[in-house]
Fold:
Amino acid sequence: MRFKFTIFVILLLWSAQLQGRQSTETDLRFTILHTNDEHSHLIPIPAVNDHPEYRNLADGGIARLAGAIDMIRTEKKQTGEPVLLFSAGDILGGPAFGWLPLQEGLAPELNLFQKMGYDAITIGNHEFDYGSDVYARYLSDAGYPAAAEKTVILGTNVRPPQDHPLSERGIKNHFIKELDNGLRIGIFGLIGNDAISKTAEPGPVQFDDPFESAKKAVEELQKQNVDLIISINHSGVSEDRQLAELLPEIDIIVGGHTHTALHSPIYVEDTIIVQAGNYMQYLGRLELSYNRELDKLSVLNEENGNDFLIPIDSTINEDEDVSAEVERYTEILNDWLRDFTDGAVSSIRETIAYSDFPVYRNEIQRESAIGNFVTDAMKFSAERVLDQPIDIAVQANGAIRSDIKPGTEVWNQGEITFYDMMMAFGLGSGDDGSPGYPLVSFYLTEEEVRNALEVSILLSELMGDNYFLQFSGLNMIYNPERAVLFTIPFAGTPIPSSRAVLGAELVDGEETRTLRKDSDQLIHVVTDYYIAGFLPMVGERLPGLAITLRDENGRAISLDEAIITDGDHQLKVWTGVLDYVQSLEKNEDGIPVIPARYETPEGRLTITYTLPLWVWPVAALLLIGLVIFLILRRRK
Structure:
């Protein structure tokens, strides 16, 4: 009897051990590392704080990022866990390094991403900043389509024409990644509706509906018996949520576009949504376990004691090979900068200005100190080049990419580097092949200027801060709550009121002059090429607010005719800023000093809340009703 009991206990223990082993074998662990909205920031920022000898307060930098990735891969290799590495798009666009793709043969971001072993990168809106032809050449310079065997470029809803070179670069709709532990993962990548609306120069490239494209991709992947489905989206958190609600079959959404640092995932039922901020200041880390028998995906970060976002700062050792490549690209960029500025600036790290304070973007959809600074600079530079007075300079918040932050340490107090200042103003390019949106000069009637003000308030209320305009040479009083008269029930279509602007005046030094709604007097305006491109489109959708670009004689002109040239080059926003900075009063070290008036907004744009527009027709109806009542009562 004792022998039988012993055998029973042994069998029971063996069975438990076997079940435990089977459970372990079905719990397949893996890790997703992810970044998004890197925007060509190859070095830590702000650059003024990046110094090898002093306390380093700069964040990011691709060499540090590579070091963090290597560290986690080494850690996971010891436990046999596969590691996936994704980018959710906008690897291009922004600071000075983002200008290098304009030079044939250079694809620094993508070459480095391949070196770091990225598995997939989704196309973002800023990939098209220089147009679809340049992006196609950029991919070719990075070795595509052959390079897609290592790092996949995803564009599930990106549709270049068949005869366009972009269609020959191996962009994939979706693909399947089989991990060493046997997991089959289906992966696709979307550019969202908001990102599509902000795509500057897509040319002939079309974009399919992201939600319909996702549905088709999920159906295709399910037919191929994948265990899990991942969507790498350049869409933003709001659209990621919508996608998760629409397609619960998606297990994980790696997000981008809104620059959101999600320190914990968002869960929509069983779908996991993550996003890692921007500018390579974080590396997203999502540790997972999948039980195939239970079809259950579990997040292990908290169990493992690991954060979802790893700060990329000076505590992380740089990857030496990547660091050497960054130095090589820096020298190429510095050589180009010296040539373009005729030696005025010789290095991206050069101190070009001094300030006792940061120049901020301030509140959204409000006047900002940096908006005043850049429009003043545009006005100054255009007047110098054209040798004509400019009435108004205009820039949109969406084109102002960062604050201007001077150094705060003893060794860099008040210093502003070229790199840090141009982070704010370096977007786009012109048809001359050089970086930065060109400035354009044209004339509008006073009525059209008023229309443009109404459009700015309307669009910023409906579509967000990117569309809010900043001004030099103009003061405005407005009520944003009056931008929309009412919204059509059920259809959800807003009806503009054209009554949000309560007053506007031109400002020339101490003198002011009221802008009249019914005046056809011409006003000289300067803005950038991208912003000006939207103005003629206004009349197509809102005929009552039509705007026509004109020359000084009132003749209608094209946008290309309005481009300002300075010698052999187009005058760009960033060169205008540099021009303005160099004109400022200098300190004892010969460095230009940012004037104190740019520490805070000046009151150029003033909000005044008045009675809502709907009050007046309601009041009129009540008054009519009262009159009718009194008349009827008198007759009785």
Summary: Residues 2-26 form the longest helix (25 residues).
